[in-house]
Structures are given as C-alpha cells and as structure tokens.
C-alpha cells in the first residue's frame, strides 16, 4: 500500500454522519489532512479563494442543501481536474449512479458502507481504483457489457474484456495483474488498448460514453 499522505475533503450536510466519517478518516495513517463542509458551495468557495487548497480526494453526498452533489461534481472537476471524487449517498438508482460517474466521479459508495470501507475507498481511489458498492458495481459491469455488445467495431479481445471487468469492479491495476498472473506493465498495455478502442481516456470516460449513447 502507498505511504503517500493524502489530503481529503468531506462534503456532507448531516452533522452526526459527517463526524463519524471524519473520525474514521482522521484515524487512518494515510490521511494527512481533512477538511469537512456541510454544503458544496463552501468547498467551491475555498477552492477558488485558496490557491493551495488542493485535496487529493473529495467525498461528497448527493442530497446536499442548495447545490446538489450532482451539480457540484462537474464544478469541482472544472476547478481541480485531477481530484478523485467519491460519491457517498443513500441513492442507489441507476440514473443517479451513471450521472455521477458521467460527471466525473471515480467511485460510488452507499451510506450503508462501514467507516472502514469508506476509508479504504479513499485510499483505493487515490491508487487508481474505482471503489464501488457491490450493487453499484453490478450496474457498471452491466453497462460495460452493453458497450461491448453495441460497439462491436471496437473488437475487444477476451483478455481486454476480462481486464475491463476487473477495473469496473473497482480493482486497481496491481490487483488485476495479480489476479491474472501477469505483470503490471502488461496490464498497462491492455488498458491503453482498451481506452484506444473505446476512444476514452479513463474508466469514468467509458461509463460517460455509455450514458451519452443511451446504452444504460
């Protein structure tokens, strides 16, 4: 596991739940700093007014007062394109899942997740993974199946489809390499070929393409 220290922001309007998640994050050695906000507007204001405010990961609720999480995600990505955003919400319906991912979220967790699972997701997403609650992962895998069926011209090989499924299930490249007993360098090669064939640059981009083309 990476020893890099992370800066994390938590945007959640329910004080008790926010405090619970914040406590779990602060207890983890990998988390160097944590700021929490009760609304998205405050987080956006800080990004604009404090040039040094550059979190590595943002955890955000969707059902926020004022600017919703779905509205805030693209605004946060516009200001900080490299940030990893993980949704933390009670909503598990497909439209919200795919809208969040299409807007730039790299992970999607339900609030039924334990504090430990949430903290692990923060570390995982920074390592290049896409943490997803199991039910959400099934939606995503289904979406990729539709992409493969619809986009026959991409001609993904069996190995490419296998790697894509593992990535969609939230594994990082190192874990995929271990699963398939191949090198991380080989996984990188396959990922480049997958993205080239799907004409995207990221896992989120592939989901976004599926949404735009009405495949999900």
UniProtKB/TrEMBL annotation:
<dbReference type="InterPro" id="IPR001789">
    <property type="entry name" value="Sig_transdc_resp-reg_receiver"/>
</dbReference>
<keyword id="KW-0597">Phosphoprotein</keyword>
<feature type="domain" description="Response regulatory">
    <location>
        <begin position="7"/>
        <end position="126"/>
    </location>
</feature>
<dbReference type="GO" id="GO:0006355">
    <property type="term" value="P:regulation of DNA-templated transcription"/>
</dbReference>
<dbReference type="GO" id="GO:0003677">
    <property type="term" value="F:DNA binding"/>
</dbReference>
<feature type="modified residue" description="4-aspartylphosphate">
    <location>
        <position position="61"/>
    </location>
</feature>
<dbReference type="Pfam" id="PF00196">
    <property type="entry name" value="GerE"/>
</dbReference>
<dbReference type="GO" id="GO:0000160">
    <property type="term" value="P:phosphorelay signal transduction system"/>
</dbReference>
<keyword id="KW-0238">DNA-binding</keyword>
<dbReference type="InterPro" id="IPR039420">
    <property type="entry name" value="WalR-like"/>
</dbReference>
<dbReference type="InterPro" id="IPR011006">
    <property type="entry name" value="CheY-like_superfamily"/>
</dbReference>
<feature type="domain" description="HTH luxR-type">
    <location>
        <begin position="149"/>
        <end position="214"/>
    </location>
</feature>
<dbReference type="InterPro" id="IPR000792">
    <property type="entry name" value="Tscrpt_reg_LuxR_C"/>
</dbReference>
<dbReference type="InterPro" id="IPR016032">
    <property type="entry name" value="Sig_transdc_resp-reg_C-effctor"/>
</dbReference>
<dbReference type="Pfam" id="PF00072">
    <property type="entry name" value="Response_reg"/>
</dbReference>
<protein>
    <submittedName>
        <fullName>Response regulator transcription factor</fullName>
    </submittedName>
</protein>
<dbReference type="InterPro" id="IPR058245">
    <property type="entry name" value="NreC/VraR/RcsB-like_REC"/>
</dbReference>
